[in-house]
Amino acid sequence: MGSKLENYINLRAVLRYVEERRHEDGGYCFVSLLNETNINDTYYAVKIYDLLGMEVPEREKTIEFLYTSLKPQQAVVAISMAIEGLAILGAKDLAEEGLSLVFEKYRPLEGKFAVGLGGSEEFGTATPLEATYWVLRAFKAVDHKISPEEKEKIREFIESFRKGDGYGVKQAITTMTYQAIFALNSLDYKTPKTSHFHRCEAYGGFTEVPYSLPPYLEPTFYALRGLKLLGEKPRYVKEHINFIRALQNPNGGFRRSLEMGISNFQNTYRGLRALDDLLSF
């Protein structure tokens, strides 16, 4: 396959895991027996293939699935994922059509940061900061320009989540700290320096809050992404690699912790992306 990742994990099993969960409509569902294809799983399937430099099987079907999934009732996080997925698949014109749905729910000049919020990638119900992160990813994917006035309103909103040198609702957490600094960076503001990620670094993996255990894949993924954005390196590269390798399940997918967890697409992508980041430090 030619990927450096295959020296560390069973990459053939990963591809088999993803491929077996592709359905006739072009969408994906991580629970293979269910025919409930969805944007989240399809987005991460696209991201996995893109990371590995591979063509998405029956690409046109997946484009059609994501495009027809762009509906007003979808949460802004899902709409943003579909837009980014379409852009990765080369359907930028269709992705741009989805922006009208984003503008119905995300109006920073009116002080509305994701009307209704709805579903979340991480927390059950999306935080407005999470919605901002995904909207800005979608904007970046289609090169949508944001006005200076909108940028400043979004920056002020992001800073309202600042907790010390990190970001969160009640306290700084790894996921929201990364979402905040990514968002500020994508708005062309100077990336805020933070020691949060280093304080969450365990001897193999990262945690959501400093000096706590056990580590999980989600904060490990976000912390490594954050350190890369800051131009900094983790202390325990080899141990982090071993931690991620241990999260691959027999079916080829990745779980979130050493103790338990079934495979799903988002953690499989996170495992691959985090491992790829670690091999580049």
Automatic annotation (TrEMBL):
Domain called Prenyltransferase alpha-alpha toroid: residue spans: 11-67, 130-269
Pfam family membership, one: Prenyltrans
MF-aspect GO terms: catalytic activity
CDD domains recorded: ISOPREN_C2_like
Annotated keywords: Repeat
Keyword Repeat among UniProt keywords: yes
Protein name (Swiss-Prot/TrEMBL): Prenyltransferase alpha-alpha toroid domain-containing protein
Record lineage: Archaea, Methanobacteriati, Methanobacteriota, Thermococci, Thermococcales
